[in-house]
Each structure stands twice: as C-alpha cells, then as structure tokens.
Amino acid sequence: MSFENEKYSVDKDPYEWCLRQSKRLKSIDPQMNTQMRNHKLLTQMPGELEHAVKCRCNQNCTLDEIDNTLQDVRKRTNIGKFTPYRSSCFKQKQPFRVELKDNPKERVAEAPKKKNSCHNCG
After folding, report:
1. Which intervals carry biased composition (Basic and acidic residues) (predicted)?
2. Total number of domains in the chain
3. CA dihedral 84, 18, 68, 71 (to 10 degrees)
4. How many other CB atoms sit within 10 Å of the CB of residue 14?
C-alpha cells in the first residue's frame, strides 16, 4: 500500500504530503472519520515530530490545521533537521578485547592494573 510506504521526512513539503496522504486514505476508506484519519497521518511521521504535532492539535482538527501545525513545528524547532555529530575519534577506536588463555586460573590474573596517582600533586 502506497500510504504506508511514504513516511514524512523533513525535506518534503508538509502541505503536499498531507494532501497526498489524505487523498490516499479517502480512496481506501471513504467513510473514515476525521479522528481516525488524523491518527493515521500522524503515525506516518517520525516520533518526535508526531508527538509535537499531537500536543498542539485537537484530535478532530481539519487537515489545514495539521498542515499549519506541522509547518509551525518545522519552522520553530530543529526536530529531524540535523543528524547527531560523531567525530572521527569514535570511528577509529577499537573495541577493548582481552586475549583469553586456555587455563581459567590465568584468566583472573589478566585483569588490568589500576594506576594510582596523587590528585593533590597533579
């Protein structure tokens, strides 16, 4: 079903996306009430954006109100606009692995030693 395949993303125009999805829902079920249509539209949005729009809209609001709220949330917040920054040092780190010996008694002796340092002297 094309309705379920097209999720909302920030780079799309909210008005066109809402209108297109609403028409798809009307073609699937013409007798669908406004509350159910709004619920299905909101579930196609990312979690934070869905929550922000749900908090600002009534359950029985019109499609125009959802569109205006979605544009307002997009303009005023940074929800979904940026990906988290990960510096290159995170990518270069190797996972910590300890070579295991065949003898279980030797495994206990392999624990790393803690370096003691004086916190007053620096």
Report:
1. 101-113
2. 1
3. 20
4. 20
**29 part of a folded domain:** yes
- State which residues form the domain around 18: 2-76
Nearest-angstrom CA–CA distance, 64 and 61? 8
What does the mean pLDDT of the chain come to? 77
Residue 97 lies in a domain: no
CA neighbours closer than 13 Å in the CB half-sphere of residue 114? 3
**117 phi, psi to nearest 5 deg:** -140, 155
The answer to the question of residue 7 being in a domain is yes
pTM over 0.90: no
Question: Given a cut of 80, is residue 20 above it in pLDDT?
Answer: yes
DSSP structural state of residue 15: H
CB neighbourhood size of 60 (10 A)? 11
Cα-Cα-Cα-Cα torsion 55, 59, 64, 66, nearest 10 degrees, comes to 30
Residues 20, 6, 48: CA angle, nearest 5 degrees: 100
What is the spatial distance between Cα 82 and Cα 84, in angstroms, rounded to a whole number? Answer: 6
